[in-house]
Write a structure and sequence with these properties.
With 253 residues, this protein is of the alpha+beta class. The chain has 6 helices and 8 strands. Among the domains are: 62 residues, no CATH class; 54 residues, no CATH class; 50 residues, no CATH class. The strands form 3 sheets. The chain has a 3-stranded antiparallel β-sheet with strand order 2-3-5, with no helix packed on it.
Length: 253
């Protein structure tokens, strides 16, 4: 009776062992599947965090509100026809007749406000001006740089290169800043009447030459008693006609 029971118990043990092994295998597969399911959202979350952290935030560019520099030259709500040229843009009509009045179509620049004769704001308007280039204007219509390095009292009279700018209320064709050759016309404050009076009264002692800043000639006249009167007479004539002037080369006032 013991022999038959042996194989049965052995078969039962083998069946239990087989069941446990199958259960272990099944539990391992389920655990791997669960780990895979949990890892996928975490990796997706890490990718989304990485993408968010590396992407630069979008910032909308602010619109420029800076006012142009020319606006300071433009009177607010003034007559459009009286605006300075820097405040408007005009259609240049180069076919106009030189020296004649011509009409030009103009419009105001951005941020500039002007009105017409009826106090109505307008952007497009017309102006009347003489048909001529800026460098052809009269000397009173532009301002030029001055030079104190050239000699004004000389023969021939010297010139210098000046940079001229048209006045704001003057309209003309072409560039409003232009070069021009001008005569030396600066003054050091010496008066022609004073120099002539000194030459007539105290010229024998060189007072006229001292006054004009010509020290060597003044000392020569002083110690020669005006060249025995001859030098004195010549200086009266030369100062009278303006041939002898200040030593710094400036004009009389």
């Amino acid at each position: 009776m013991a022999a038959p029971c042996g194989p049965r118990s052995l078969r039962r043990l083998c069946g239990v062992a087989l069941f446990v092994s199958q259960l272990y295998v099944l539990s391992g597969r389920a655990g791997s599947l669960m780990a895979t399911k949990h890892s996928q959202p975490q990796s997706a979350l890490s990718k989304s965090l990485t993408a968010t952290s590396t992407s630069a935030p979008y910032v909308k560019a602010a619109e420029s509100t800076e006012i142009p520099a020319y606006v300071t030259k433009c009177p607010s709500n003034g007559l459009c026809s009286r605006l300075p040229p820097d405040c408007m843009v005009c259609n240049t009509n180069y076919s106009c007749i030189y020296g004649k009045l011509a009409t030009f179509d103009c419009r105001v620049k951005p941020h500039v406000h002007c009105v017409d004769q009826n106090n109505h704001e307008q952007e497009n308007f017309t102006i009347n001006m003489t048909c001529q280039f800026c460098w052809q204007l009269p000397t009173a219509d532009y301002v030029c740089s001055n030079s104190t390095n050239c000699m004004t009292v000389s023969c021939p009279r010297q010139r210098y290169n000046a940079t001229c700018t048209v006045r704001d209320h003057i309209h003309c064709l072409g560039n409003r800043v232009f070069p021009k050759m001008l005569y030396c016309n600066w003054t050091g404050g010496y008066k022609w009447s004073t120099a002539l009076a000194l030459s007539i009264t105290l010229g024998g002692f060189g007072a006229d030459r001292f006054y004009l800043g010509q020290w060597r000639e003044g000392l020569g006249k002083l110690f020669s008693f005006g060249g025995l009167g001859i030098w004195t007479l010549i200086d009266v004539l030369l100062i009278g006609v303006g041939y002898v002037g200040p030593a710094d080369g400036s004009l009389y006032i």
